[in-house]
Amino acid sequence: MVPKKGKQTKVKPWCNCYPAERPPRFLRPFLLLLLREREGHGYELIDRMREMGLEYSIQDAGYVYRTLRSMEKGDLITSQWDTENAGPAKRVYAITPQGVGMLREWAQTFENLKVSLEAFLETYEAMEGEVHAPKVIKKPS
């Protein structure tokens, strides 16, 4: 990505090999997956993603909410206000049939990616030995 003249683009590093490269954008498929499991509001979805090893902080909440709004405009999800519970009203999101179809496409894409990554790691481990990387992703219980 080439920034416009005079404009600096800040990108959070995600890999020391490519410190200026953006990380893979997997927010949408994870939101679809969680909403397929059950409806939820924004902060609840962020907490559920954390349980799966995706770290979104309070500072990232705006990005998550913008993504949810974009997904709603694309008819992947719907929302309605929950005013029945105590406290301020919360927008509760649910997946649509179109969202279920998109989730299926993501699952197929991830399956292909998984095969490629496993082949990469098997080849690397055959040459260099076991990869000793810190395990940061928590598997759901």
Walk me through the structure.
Strands 1-3-2 form a three-stranded antiparallel beta sheet. A hairpin with a 7-residue loop joins β2 (77-82) and β3. Helix content is 47%, strand content 10%. The chain is mostly helical and 141 residues long.
Give the topology.
Blueprint (H helix, E strand, L loop, with lengths): L26 H11 L2 E2 H10 L9 H13 L3 E6 L7 E6 L1 H32 L13
Antiparallel strand pairs: 1-3, 2-3
Helix pairs in contact: 1-4
In CATH terms, the superfamily is Winged helix-like DNA-binding domain superfamily/Winged helix DNA-binding domain
How much beta, percentage-wise?
5-15%
Shape: elongated
Question: Compute the gyration radius: what is it?
Answer: 18 Å
What is the domain total for the residues?
1
Please, how many helices?
Answer: 4
Number of strands: 3
Tell me which CATH architecture applies here.
Orthogonal Bundle
* Name of the CATH first level: Mainly Alpha
Largest sheet geometry: 3 strands, antiparallel
**Helix residue percentage:** 40-55%
Which fold name fills CATH's third level, the topology? Arc Repressor Mutant, subunit A
| Class derived from helix and strand content | mainly alpha
